């Protein structure tokens, strides 16, 4: 569970860390995606040049979008931890819903509401899969018990 994770930075710093990590993921993934897309959409003989141009122009845009999402999500996650004084999956689910709603808020209440529900459901699925995997990989209580002591030797 997330509450026992001591390897993460404290809350103010995790926001910058997550935003930067999300930007890098988006920029690298977006660069690869747009390189392929630019190569496919370029005329014969200009494939490499078109691929590099598409990668350079669109890759950072996708990275910025990922960075904004990661920063907002971490901000809301930290806010939920501070408000609730707990670290549990509900913080991430609420942060996903708030992030989805805020990012779609320019489209009006209906769009923001749909995006908030989608963000909450998506994070609930992610948290559920994470909990399921951790339960499957956790040692059973029998495996955690120490072995019985050896019988006393009879002399």
Describe this structure in words.
- There is one protein chain.
- This protein is an all-alpha fold and 155 residues long.
- The chain folds into two domains: 75 residues; 49 residues.
- The chain has five helices and no strands.
- The termini are far apart.
- The mean pLDDT is 89.
Secondary structure elements and pairings:
Layout: H1 11-41, H2 47-84, H3 89-103, H4 109-137, H5 141-144
Helix pairs in contact: 1-2, 2-3, 3-4
Structure summarized in a few sentences:
It holds the Pfam family Tim17. The chain has 155 residues and is mainly alpha-helical.
What is the percent of helical residues? over 70%
Query: Hey, roughly how much beta strand do the residues contain?
Result: under 5%
Measured on Cα atoms, how large is the radius of gyration? 23 Å
Along the chain, the helix and strand elements come as HHHHH
Q: How many strand units? A: 0
Distance between the termini: 51 Å
Structural category is mainly alpha
| Domain tally | 2
Principal-axes geometry comes out as extended
The main sheet comes to:
none
What is the overall pLDDT average? 89
Low-confidence spans: none
Total helical segments: 5
GO cellular component, one term: TIM23 mitochondrial import inner membrane translocase complex
Membrane topology: Multi-pass membrane protein
Organism: Smittium mucronatum
Pfam families: Tim17
List keywords for this structure.
transport, 155 residues, extended, protein transmembrane transporter activity, mainly alpha, 0% strand
């Amino acid at each position: 569970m997330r509450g026992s994770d001591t390897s993460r930075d404290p809350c103010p710093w995790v926001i910058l860390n997550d935003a930067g990590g999300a930007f890098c993921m988006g920029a690298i993934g977006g660069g690869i995606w747009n390189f392929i897309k630019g190569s496919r959409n370029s005329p014969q003989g200009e494939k490499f040049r078109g691929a590099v141009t598409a990668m350079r122009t669109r890759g950072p845009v996708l990275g910025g979008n990922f960075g904004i999402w990661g920063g907002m999500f971490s901000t809301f996650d930290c806010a939920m931890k501070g408000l609730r004084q707990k670290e549990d999956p509900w913080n991430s689910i609420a942060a996903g819903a708030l992030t989805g709603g805020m990012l779609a808020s320019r489209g009006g209440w209906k769009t923001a509401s749909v995006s908030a529900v989608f963000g909450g459901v998506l994070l609930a699925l992610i948290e559920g899969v994470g909990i399921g995997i951790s339960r499957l990989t956790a040692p059973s209580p029998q495996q955690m018990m120490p072995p019985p002591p050896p019988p006393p030797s009879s002399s």
